[in-house]
Amino acid sequence: MKCPFCGDPNTQVTDTRENEDGDVVRRRRRCVACDKRFTTYERIDLKMPHIVKRNGNRSEFDHAKLSGSMKLALRKRPVASEAVEAAIGRIEARLLSMGESEVASEKVGELVMRELKKLDKVAYIRFASVYRNFADVDEFSEVIREVQARPRRPRGSRKNEQAPEDDLFGS
Length: 171
Description:
Elements: E1 11-18, E2 24-31, E3 37-43, E4 50-52, E5 58-59, H1 63-73, H2 81-97, E6 102-104, H3 105-119, H4 121-131, H5 137-148, H6 164-168
Parallel strand pairs: 4-6
Antiparallel strand pairs: 1-2, 2-3, 4-5
């Protein structure tokens, strides 16, 4: 590693540490020539696949565009930013794990919709209405019915769970 101060190629590693996740290595280095110290970071460099759009054009994967789309759908919704970042991380991890050099934009859209459906139903419907380019109210209604189709368990119906009123009266 070349010294950033004097340019000498002879440096020594004085300390090496990994971060908590084990995906970044921090190294403290000392230049043999000028005795100055500096820090370097070593991380895995994975290439995200290129996105193939509906019209056939290809573009580089854009984290900011993915994040912006999800945040726009989630605008003014009660979802923690940590949950959004975790969802974005899952989408990116899924894209990387596919091992493809190119992925259709439709696949990315489906991954986004799957994550939004878990995070917030309203955001899911917002995104789906734009992504699927609804032509009429019937298509919109269909997505709403799809979201509502999941049966919800009433509180207290799970084994060993008390209904809220049981707690109030000490039963």
